[in-house]
Design goal:
The protein has 232 residues and is of the alpha/beta class. The protein has eight helices and twelve strands. The chain has two domains: 2-125, Rossmann fold (3-Layer(aba) Sandwich), CATH 3.40.50; 127-227, Arc Repressor Mutant, subunit A (Orthogonal Bundle), CATH 1.10.10. It has helices at 14-26, 37-47, 63-70, 87-95, 108-126, 158-169, 177-185, 194-211, and strands at residues 6-10, 30-34, 51-55, 77-83, 100-104, 133-135, 138-141, 146-149, 152-154, 174-176, 217-220, 224-227. The strands form three sheets. Strands 2-1-3-4-5 form a five-stranded parallel beta sheet, sandwiched between helices. Helix 6 packs across helix 8 (194-211). It is elongated. The termini are far apart. The model has no long low-confidence stretch (mean pLDDT 87).
């Protein structure tokens, strides 16, 4: 994917939109922009972007509502933009399915680096050839990037799948937040480690809804997380 990717930039500030567009187009990406939430939803359906840069504070339909509706029909990567005072909104955005966030004001070069890291992960994970991992009713297929519980699909975002895959491949071993960030977000990630906890929380909730499979993901207090097969 990478340089062939389509990116949607959603921000109500024209200078931000145009600056980000210029930097991304310089790197070879196809870029569309939207100035409000309603236009963003229309653009998402029309262009089906691979990645969306989404400001939280938007007119008409705010960024969190855009994200909520987006996650009902798309697993595109989402990088949220927020002001420094909007920490609770950032955490809520992650819980609703955003993959990462960047705080305003930001360096356009840092934004491009985050975008490239996300899309590079998509490319490197797309053709995974390892055999599926099976633990009782839980089946994790790395090649198809699918998870099933008792034969029924479990709908996970890319980040949630990658966290589960990383933990399951090292089942029985404790992985720290730093190790999970290296394996899932990449060595060049320089955001907040709390994103791991938020995405693990979402992963557990979805596994529980599927049939109680969250018992496989165990918190090791003060250290990180471990995948544990309760049948062993």
């Amino acid at each position: 994917m990478t340089k062939n990717a389509t990116i949607l930039v959603v921000d109500d500030e024209a200078p931000v939109r145009e600056t980000v567009r210029a930097y991304l187009e310089k790197e070879g990406y196809t870029v569309y922009t939207a100035a409000d939430g309603a236009a963003a939803l229309q653009s998402i359906r029309a262009f089906k972007p691979d990645l969306i840069i989404l400001d939280i504070m938007l007119p008409q339909v705010d960024g969190l509502e855009v994200l909520r509706r987006l996650r009902q029909e798309s697993d595109a990567w989402v990088l949220m933009l927020s002001a420094r005072a909007e920490e609770m909104d950032r955490i809520l955005g992650l819980k609703m399915g955003a993959d990462d966030y960047l705080t305003k004001p930001f360096s356009p070069r840092e934004l491009v680096a985050r975008v490239e890291a996300m899309l590079r992960r998509s490319s490197s994970l797309a053709g995974r050839a390892e055999a599926p991992l099976v633990f009782g009713k839980l089946r994790i297929d790395g090649g198809a990037r699918q998870v099933t519980w008792d034969g029924r699909p479990v709908d996970l975002t890319p980040i949630e799948f990658d966290l589960l895959w990383a933990l399951a491949r090292h089942h029985g071993r404790v992985l720290s937040r730093e190790q999970l960030i290296e394996q899932v977000w990449g060595y060049d990630y320089f955001g907040d480690e709390r994103v791991v906890d938020v995405h693990i929380g979402r992963l557990r909730k979805k596994l529980d809804q599927a049939g109680g499979a969250s018992q496989y993901v165990v918190t090791v207090r003060g250290v990180g997380y471990r995948f544990e097969d309760p049948q062993v």
